[in-house]
Amino acid sequence: MLDVHDLCGGYGQAPVLHNVKMRLGRGETVALLGPNGAGKSTLLAALTATLPVRSGRAEMSGHDLIGMPSHRIVAEGLALIPEGRHVFAPMTVEDNLLLGSIRLQGRSAAAVRSRFEYVYDLFPRLAERRLQRTGTLSGGEQQMVAIGRALMSAPRLLLLDEPFMGLAPMVVQQILQALQVLRSTGMTMLLVEQKLDIALKHSDRAYVLVKGRIVCTDRSIQLAARTDLSQLYLGSG
Ligand SMILES: Nc1ncnc2c1ncn2[C@@H]1O[C@H](COP(=O)(O)OP(=O)(O)OP(=O)(O)O)[C@@H](O)[C@H]1O
């Protein structure tokens, strides 16, 4: 589904990503782990046209995403759920979701309606609150809006940037259940996370990024059993 080759990029003169290589197979949930400042969000920015890439490629179903404008990246079937959610607080839940349906523009109203139904089935809480201003929702509900908005574009690949950040354990479980449903229906997901336990428990494979370099990759079950993982994670392995 996604094949990242030797990606290098950064901000101004400062390099952040160094020859990043990563593969996601269709239907896989892959975790991208790494400490604060490792470059995880920067990698997502490189894949979604918000960071100029110095070199390398990122092919999705054979098309290079690097250099593509963001609307074409969405049309390829990639959707980002950004860190911090970035929902539009004064707008209703329904209007926030509608913004995500841009890829469906030009299709029938029925196609958009069926996406709303899909999102509301996954998150019944959003259906109950569809006319509420998003800024008045709880943090967990806002995260549901952010995920729902991404799903409105009928993506094939979801990039989730720390979707559990700042959420209470019960809400984390609700979000995990929704991700489990997506996983069981064959969605491909890249789950960016700092917390090893949650990410390794809910992914098939994982990459560890430290100081902009992939230092380790394996099946999540194997990584979870490694005793040197924390050391690696801190960049001292
Ligand atoms: N807009 C920016 N301009 C300059 N440097 C930046 C910018 N955004 C991030 N950086 C730097 O790039 C490096 C990687 O940051 P990034 O946010 O990608 O890390 P991260 O792994 O996502 O961290 P976290 O888990 O804390 O979100 C850091 O050194 C950071 O200071």
From TrEMBL:
Gene Ontology biological process terms, A to Z: L-amino acid transport
Family per similarity comment: Belongs to the ABC transporter superfamily.
Domain ABC transporter stretches: 2-236
Keywords: Amino-acid transport, ATP-binding, Cell membrane, Membrane, Nucleotide-binding, Transport
Stored PROSITE patterns: ABC_TRANSPORTER_1 (PS00211), ABC_TRANSPORTER_2 (PS50893)
Protein source organism: Verminephrobacter eiseniae (strain EF01-2)
CDD domains (UniProt xref): ABC_TM1139_LivF_branched (cd03224)
Name the UniProt record assigns to this protein: ABC transporter related
Gene Ontology molecular function, alphabetical: ATP binding; ATP hydrolysis activity; branched-chain amino acid transmembrane transporter activity
Top-rank taxon: Bacteria
This protein's record includes keyword Manganese: no
